[in-house]
Structure formats: C-alpha cells, structure tokens
Amino acid sequence: MQRILSGIQPSGDVHLGNLLGALRNWVADQHTHESFHPIVDLHAVTVPQDPEGLREATLRLAQVLMAAGLDPEVCVLFVQSHVPEHTQLAWVLECTAGFGELRRMHQFKDKSAEGDFVSAGLFTYPVLQAADILLYDADAVPVGDDQRQHIELTRDIAQRFNARYGDVLVVPEHRIPPAGARVMDLQEPTRKMSKSSGDAPGTVWLLDEPDDIRRKIRRAVTDSLSEVRFDRDARPGVSNLLEILGAATQRAPQSVADDYDRYGPLKNDCAEAVVELLAPVRRRFAELRADPAETQRALRAGAEAAGEVAAATMARVRRAMGFLPP
Ligand code: TYM
C-alpha cells in the first residue's frame, strides 16, 4: 500500500481552499493509502501564537478534520509536537539544505515581507516540513498548489541526503488535484484564499452558516464582462467560481463554464454546491465538540502510531550519519 503524508497548520480555522485543495483528497485517500496527517503546531509557532489560543486551535482543528471525514481509526491523525522526532530530523536536514535554496522559497519571501520581526524558524520552516514528510517514508504528498515548491525542496533534500549517506530516505512525489488546487479569495481573486484573512468576506470557512456562505459567494468579485469563460488570467473572479463549483461537483471547470451564460445562476449554483458540501461537516463538528476527551484520546493514539514509524526512521538516519550510539 502506498503511503501518504500531509499536514495542516492550526493557525486560524479551516477554509474552503484547504478543503478542496487538500483535505477532501485526504479523506478519499485514507481508504486506499496508509495515511499520516499531522496537525503542524510547530509550524504555527514560526510566528507568535497566544498559548491558550494555540491549545484551543489545535484541538478544534482535530475536530474539524474529523468532522470533514478523516477517521482516526483509519488514518494516523496526530499532533506534530507530540512526536519529538520531527524536530530531531529537521536539525540534521537543516545541515543538508542550502541557505541559498531556502532563501528562494516564495512563501518565505512573501511572509517575511509582511512583518518586521522575521524568526529564524520562518526561514527554516520548509526543512521542518521536509522532516514531516521524510520521517514517514511517504511515497506521495497530497497538497494544494501553493506547497509545490516545498515538496520540490523536500525531494532535493532527500536526494542529497541519500547521495551522502546511502539509500536512507524515500523521495516523495507531490500530488496536486486537477480541480481545487488553487482556490482564490472571493473578493481579491488574484490572491489565494488564506487563513490569515481573518473575518474577510472573501474567505469561506468550513463552519460558516449556510446564509453566510450564500452571501459571500453571491458577492464574489467577478468582472464587468458578462460572458462565462474559464480563463484564470483574464477572468480570475469567474474562473475561481467555476473552479470551486467544479471541485465541489467533481467536474472540470472548463466544462462547468459551458452550462452558463450569465453570472447570477453560476453564483447561485456555486453557493448551493458549497452549502451542500459543508452541511455534514457542521453537523458532525457539533457532535465532536461535545466530547473533547474523545478527540484527545484519538490524538494520543495517533501520536503513538506515528511515533513508532518516526523512531525507526530516526534510528536509520543516526546510524547512516555516524552518530555514536549511547
Ligand atoms: P496550510 O496549513 O497552509 O494548508 C493546508 C493545505 O491546504 C492547502 N491550501 C489550499 N489549497 C487550495 N487553495 C487554497 N487557497 C489553499 N490554501 C491552502 C495547502 O496547499 C495545504 O495542502 N506548510 C503546510 C503545512 C505542512 C505540510 C507538511 C504539508 C507542514 N508539514 C508536510 C504537507 C506535508 C501549510 O502551511 O499548509
């Protein structure tokens, strides 16, 4: 059975981009792949987090992931900081990654331009991500399009490590879905939908009320031309709606476009498809919310299963690198 790994940060709630670009595919893959899904709290602290807020967000994210269909009895769902090998492997991989290649990471360039304090962790973040993946010998990494460069870096690091120390790490492939890999902000369709947009009207959250979802999608920015055509460069707004509706209904956005000649009906159908997609998530989340101890138990079991695999990889890495056993 092929093994996959993919993580998500507990910084802010889960949005429609996370669902269509990543989470939905994890839910489908868990039955056909050996699946590992860390909630990457160590990545979240590359920028300051309120401690109580982080604890709450981590538990809540686990509940949202389970509400969306990740079953901790089927996949390995765990909290990254519960498995200390992530940071152990990250250190030795930092000694394998080049300063220059990290400096070229788009996400670092974007994020470091935003704040005045740039942590060293924000810079080495992609190496921690490589460690997340390589620790579990993942064959594939299902992610949205924004993670493409990080997975390429992971492959480069693994290949360089293997060239130095022998065949120790599995070199993973990225897996980017044909539709939904790049969900854009509804108000600024040239910017990706993101967790950092706060309460902005351009982001649909998984737990939004149906009427909020309808309002956000009906008010989505399109353009002054009224022809419905899939063209990301010339028609970013309408193309985003086609992409969302396509991803929600398992169709190619180009073929969805053929069904519409006006924006109104497209927006209505898109809104209803998203409402329908999210209704069971909201219901199930309310149930899980009522029993946090059960979620904690599932996360402990997940960390135990993950820890076994992680410890074996780290032992292999230490041996290959020549660290003297204690
Ligand atoms: P994060 O938490 O930002 O996002 C989680 C997943 O959601 C995808 N995604 C999107 N897909 C489509 N449209 C969007 N607008 C959109 N926004 C986010 C992301 O591509 C991702 O798959 N660095 C990662 C977390 C991470 C990770 C890993 C991922 C840490 N370790 C190991 C894979 C493997 C991140 O910040 O994702």
Summing up helix and strand content along with how strands pair, one would put the structural category as: mainly alpha
Query: Topology as H/E string?
Result: EHEHHEHHHHEHEHHHHH
Helix content: 40-55%
Which percent band covers the strand fraction?
A: 5-15%
Determine Rg (CA atoms, Å). 20 Å
User: Residue ranges: pLDDT <50 for 5 or more in a row?
Assistant: none
Distance between the ends: 35 Å
Number of strands: 5
Strands of the widest sheet, in order across it, are 1-2-3
Present as ligands are:
tryptophanyl-5'AMP
- Give the oligomeric state: single chain
Rounded average pLDDT:
95
Work out the helix count: 13
For the biggest sheet, the summary is:
3 strands, parallel
Shape: globular
What would a concise description of this structure say?
It is built from 13 helices and 5 strands. By secondary structure, the protein is mainly alpha-helical.
Give a description of the structure.
With 326 residues, the chain is mainly alpha-helical. Helices cover 54% and strands 6% of the residues. Strands 1-2-3 form a 3-stranded parallel β-sheet. Helix 8 links the parallel strand 4 and strand 5. The protein is globular, with a radius of gyration of 20 Å. The two termini are 35 Å apart. The model has no long low-confidence stretch (mean pLDDT 95). Bound molecules: tryptophanyl-5'AMP. The site of tryptophanyl-5'AMP has 25 residues, from helix 1 and helix 7.
